[in-house]
Amino acid sequence: MFRHDPEGPPCSNMENLLQQVADGSAKGLKKWYAVAHANRCTHCGNFLSRMTRTVSALRSAQKVEDEEVFNRLLNGSWKTAVSEATSDEKKA
Amino acid sequence: MFQVLGWGSHKSKVEATTTKKPFEDVVKAELSTLYRVAVRLCRNETTAEDLVAQTLFLAAKGWQAFDGNYPRSWMIRIMRNEYASAHRKVGSGPTVSIDEVSEPYDDLFWREIDWNISGTEIGRALDAIPEENRLAVVMCDMESLTRDEAADALGVPVGTLNSRLHRGRNMLRAKLVAFHTEYQEAK
User: Fold this and answer.
1) Residue B53: which of A59, A62, A77 has the nearest Cβ?
2) What is the CATH number of the domain that holds B29?
3) Which domain holds residue B106?
4) Which of A89, B52, B153, B182 has the most C-beta neighbours closer than 10 Å?
């Protein structure tokens, strides 16, 4: 069934497939089927286009890295645990 | 001949699964991912740093017993368990009802902005969705973990992870639209 009125939720049987197309995990026939449906069904077409933009925004979101925090973490108390484990191993 | 080839390939598989990197190398490789997931989990950078420090300590202690496969999901699983146990002591944080996140169909938003939402807004929207969905979205869409790795880290089947991820994206989308509407009204 294809829906042509402008707004509404995607077809319930298509939603999972459309999510997979949006994140690139759908391949081959699955992808073709979902895209072909979305081209004819306004609700699913809108859903696919918005979901693709949401996923792409998430992927390109800035990844904030804090050098100071990383240095503190890299020299944290876990190092003691590692050296204790190594010395236990040597004793054994 | 066949047997020799067969044995050889089996041996290389065994070697591949038993090769384990030194813990220090794994920490260096995974630290930024662990920290970012922790920030999204705690919604607070100071708490996130403490959580990662505690995770690394526990992981270092357990490293010898670990088989070396999927260290990233193993460490995230430790982190999540640690967070859950600390959270149980403190009490549960704010929750979001599914009713609050039904998508407002504001198509103008999608036409006008041509996707220039900042990382801060995405972070704000992520913080506003429930933890299980937030973690699924962060691990699969932001940190590029495979579905298997993410499911392993969360200790759930892949099907459950998929439904949490899909629901999380829907909620996130609704939150972004709501933020945009707020912003327009404030202008």
Assistant:
1) A77
2) 1.10.1740.10
3) 98-186
4) B52
